[in-house]
Write a structure and sequence with these properties.
Strand 6 and strand 7 (about 465-470) form a beta hairpin. By secondary structure, the chain is α/β, with parallel strands linked by helices. The chain has 26 helices and 8 strands. It folds into 5 domains: about 5-175, Rossmann fold; about 180-240, Helicase, Ruva Protein, domain 3 (Orthogonal Bundle); about 245-360, Zinc Finger, Delta Prime, domain 3; about 370-505, no CATH class; about 515-545, no CATH class.
């Protein structure tokens, strides 16, 4: 007997065997049980989710010797013939090769004949959207008022291409893409029946690669069984199917986080030299970034993604190196690369991948618009002015990691004119203000995002070695970020190392009314009307706009 592939060997024969489509199975079983079977059904969904299989099982439920029954026996001649595809009463038609109006006219002539042995004459038309417009028109009347012994069942992956006149004459069922968890459970069951030794990691990798298709998953398992003579591991899956190694993706994204162009280019070379298709690598990279984006948005989403505890820890740690905005922009670069690869513009794939890799590694960190406004509102003398995006020099070697990754071990620098401070020595506000810019630069080597936030604060006071740092009124989000326990702990440790003193820090947000009252009092003390002064002096107004300046007072006699 010739070998029967797993996709055919384990094709569901009963409603309860259809994977992850309980909403469809339950509705159809109840319809059969309550004698409410319609004359036309449309099964929609991605490939390999069970559209034609569901139609066959429903046909068996209607034509079974015990039927109509929600539980076909699978043993009678009608059930066996339908399962084998040889039943005279269940005709399967491929619309892709029978698209013309003449084919539908022949079908209309044949519906007059009674079933040969079953109770119903059933027409299953696969990929029905491939029918021509004239063929659909020829089918309309028969579909709306078929003979009582005829039932039409349509299957399609593109329901939007089916005319509304057809949709309105059928009951539509949307089959969903099978989740990784459900697909992995199904593969585990089949591997146990086939007595295959396969790792859980390999099964999950197969389930992800199948992209929600049961048929694709079983075809891949067939291929692996032929490839591996012993136990199937995730390394076996990568080698047999030519997939992108997951560690390669982690290394690539780590290189991006460290802003190391040399590393990402070396990894691109490994991808190309290893024979991996650039389009496949791009698709895997986009999926990897999608997972990081979800975890960066919701750290509790691990269960929804079907990760093991080890995988969740690995992905979560990498997601912490980026803001959500950074990941979205990286995905945009990957999508542009994917579009260029498909556009057939004639450029070398290696060149396109190299350019995209450099763009990712050289990409600046995301800064919110309100942070920019707050930074501009601090004036030119504010701490960190002109350094909002975390880049003080243009040398590549001096660029900090995008976030979180510790690359450079810096020794604490002396402050206040080179005088090293004791851990027990009191620090005053003048010392902190004098050394704050160096501290921000030191923190940037460890976490550039936190450094960007602290570059916007004003040091108000230092009391009992506790620093009071004040954000502007629009920087409430920035304050929430720096006050997270892990971030606050890192800031405190860096303060102690940089100032060589036992310092702590607390944050506050300046209220807008306080700012306005301060400005009013300052202007009152100086005895000037700024608005009137600017109206009378256009040149002064132009000068202030050029230097982004502010009038704080006028000396006597000027």
């Amino acid at each position: 007997m010739s070998y029967l592939v797993l996709a055919r060997k384990y094709r569901p024969q009963r409603f309860e065997e259809i994977v992850a489509q309980e909403h469809v199975s339950r509705t159809l079983q109840n319809a059969v049980r309550n004698d409410r079977v319609g004359s036309g059904y449309l099964f929609c969904g991605p490939r390999g989710t069970g559209k034609t299989t569901t139609a066959r099982v429903l046909a068996k439920a209607l034509n079974c010797v015990n039927g109509p029954t929600p539980e076909p026996c699978g043993e009678c001649d009608q059930c066996k013939e339908i399962a084998a595809g040889t039943s005279l009463d269940v005709l399967e038609i491929d619309a892709a090769s029978n698209t013309g109006v003449d084919d539908i006219r022949t079908l209309r002539e044949n519906v007059r004949y009674l079933p040969a042995g079953g109770k119903k004459r059933i027409y299953i038309i696969d990929e029905v959207h491939r029918l021509s417009g004239a063929a659909f028109d020829a089918l309309l009347k028969t579909l709306e008022e078929p003979p009582p012994h005829v039932i039409f069942m349509f299957a399609t992956t593109e329901p939007t291409k089916v005319p509304e006149t057809i949709l309105s004459r059928t009951q539509r069922f949307d089959l969903k893409r099978v989740s990784v968890k459900a697909l992995a459970a199904h593969l585990t069951l089949i591997a146990r029946k086939e007595e295959l030794e396969i790792d859980e990691a390999a099964i999950k990798l197969l389930a992800r690669k199948a992209d929600g298709s049961v048929r694709d998953a079983l075809s891949l398992l067939d291929q692996l069984t032929a490839f591996a003579s012993e136990k199937i591991t995730d390394e076996t899956v990568v080698a047999a199917l030519g997939l992108v190694d997951r560690q390669m993706l982690f290394s690539f994204i780590n290189g991006v986080a460290e802003r190391d162009s040399k590393v990402v280019l070396k990894l691109v070379k490994q991808v190309v030299d290893g024979g991996t298709d650039v389009a496949d690598f791009t698709a895997e990279l986009l999926e990897h970034l999608r997972l990081l984006m979800i975890l960066a948005t919701d750290t509790e989403a691990g269960d929804l993604l079907g990760f093991s505890n080890e995988e969740l820890t690995e992905y979560t740690q990498q997601a912490e190196n980026f803001s959500v905005g950074d990941i979205v922009r990286l995905i945009k670069i990957g999508m542009d690369l994917n579009r260029d690869l498909k556009s057939k513009i004639g450029l070398d794939e290696r060149l396109l991948l190299d350019v995209a890799a450099i763009k990712m590694a050289e990409m600046e960190g995301t800064v919110r618009f309100e942070e920019i406004l707050e930074h501009l509102g601090q004036g030119p003398n504010a701490s960190g002015a002109g350094n909002l995006f975390g880049q003080t020099e243009k040398k590549k070697d001096d660029l900090p990691p995008r976030s979180g990754l510790k690359l450079v071990k810096s020794e604490p620098e002396a402050v206040s004119g080179g005088r090293s401070l004791s851990r027990t020595q009191a620090v005053n506000v003048a010392m902190v203000r004098a050394g704050w810019e160096k501290f921000v630069g030191f923190l940037r080597q460890k976490n550039s995002m936190l450094a960007s936030q602290l570059a916007m604060v004003q040091i108000r006071e230092v009391k009992d070695n506790q620093i009071l740092a004040v954000f502007g009124g629009s920087a409430t989000v920035a304050r929430q970020v720096v006050e997270r326990p892990t971030n606050l702990s890192l800031i405190t440790e860096c303060l102690k190392d940089q100032f060589a003193a036992n310092l702590s820090i607390k944050f506050d947000t300046e209220r807008q009314k306080d700012v306005e009252s301060t400005d009013t009092e300052r202007k009152r003390r100086n005895g000037i009307d700024v608005k009137k002064l600017l109206e009378n002096s256009p040149r002064l107004q132009m000068l202030l706009e050029k230097v982004d300046g502010e009038i704080i007072g006028i000396r006597n006699g000027e």
